[in-house]
Design a protein that fits this description.
Elements: H1 2-27, H2 32-44, H3 47-71, H4 80-97, H5 104-131, H6 135-153, H7 190-207, H8 209-219, H9 221-226, H10 231-258, H11 269-279, H12 284-307, H13 312-348
Helix pairs in contact: 1-13, 2-3, 2-12, 3-7, 3-10, 3-11, 3-12, 4-5, 4-6, 4-10, 4-11, 5-6, 5-10, 7-8, 7-10, 7-12, 8-10, 11-12, 12-13
Length: about 350
Amino acid sequence: MKWLREMAPVAGAIALALGVGAIVTALTGYSVPAVYRELVRGAFGGKYQLFQTLTQATPIVFTSLSFVIAFRCGLFNIGAEGQLYVGAFAAAWAGFTLELPPVLHTVVCLLCGAVAGGLWGLVPGWLRARRGANEFVTTMMLSYVAIYLTSWLVSPRGPYHGTQWANQTVRILRSAELPRFMAGAQLSWGIAVGAMVAVLVWYFIFRTPRGYQIRAVGQNPQAAEYGGIDVSRSMILALTLAGALAGLGGAAEILGTHRRFIEFFSPGYGWDGIAGGLIARAHPIAAIFAAILMGALRAGGMAIDRAGVAPADLAAVFQGLVILFVVAPELIRHLKRLGALRRSRVRSEP
C-alpha cells in the first residue's frame, strides 16, 4: 500500500487547510457551516454540480500532466498557461478554417493544439539544454508572450476578430466539436480524453526506455550522462511533451466548452496544474484525482458566491490554503534538491 502511505500526508494537509479555512471564515464574520455546506453542495451536490466540477477539472488534468512530465526530468515548467493558450488558439483556428468529416476534424484540431503547445515548450527546452537558460524564466516569459499574442490575434486590430462585441474568434464548425455528456452542461468528452492521456503518460514514463531516461535525468543528470543517456535530448523532449500536453488541454477546452477562442478564457488553469502535479506527487494517474480536487474547489467557490453566503474571494482563500499546505513542503524539498544538483554540476565542470 505504498500509494496509501504517500497520499496520507496529502489528505492530512487538505484537512489542515480546511481547518484553517474555517478559522479564517469565522474571523471574517461569515457562517462556517453555511460556507462549507455550500462548498460541498456546489461541487458534489447533484449531477449538474458534479458535471461542473469535472468541467473545471478537465483542463487542469492536462496542465497537471504537463507539469508532471517536466518534473520527472528535473525541470519546472511554469509556462503551462501560455502553452494552453497557443494550443487553444491553434485548435480553434483549425476548427473554423478546415472542413473535414466529424471525428476526423476533432482529432485534427486536438493534434493542432498539441503541436502548437509542443513547439511552445520546445523553445525553453532547447534553451535549457543547449544554452543553460533557466526554464523558470523562459517558460514564464513565453507564457506572457502567448497570452498577449493570442489576445492581439482576436482583438479588433487582429486578423481573427470574430464578432464586434467581444474579443474572440468565430465559432468552430460543428464537425470539430467535442460532444457533451448532457444538454445544459458544459462537461464534454475532454475529461475522457484527459484520463486516457494520463494512462498513456504513465505508460510512457514508467514502461518505455525514453521514459526511463527522463526519470534518470530527473534523479541525477550526472549519473544519467555517465550511464550513456543524452541529458540534453531528454530535457528538450520533456519540455516539448509538457508543452504538447498543455496545448492539448487548451484544445479540449475550446472544442468541448467554449466552442471558440476567447481572449483570457483561462482563469488560471496552467497555474492550477502546478498545484495539481505536486499534490499528485508527480504521478500521472494521481494527477486525475488532484485535478478533480482543484476543480471541486473552483466549482464550490462559484457556488458560495452565487448563494450569497460569502464572496468569491473567500473561495480563493480556500484554494490558496490547500495549495499552501499541500504544495509548499513538497515544492521547497524539490527546489532544494534541484539547487543541490545544479551546484554539484557546476563544481564538477572544468
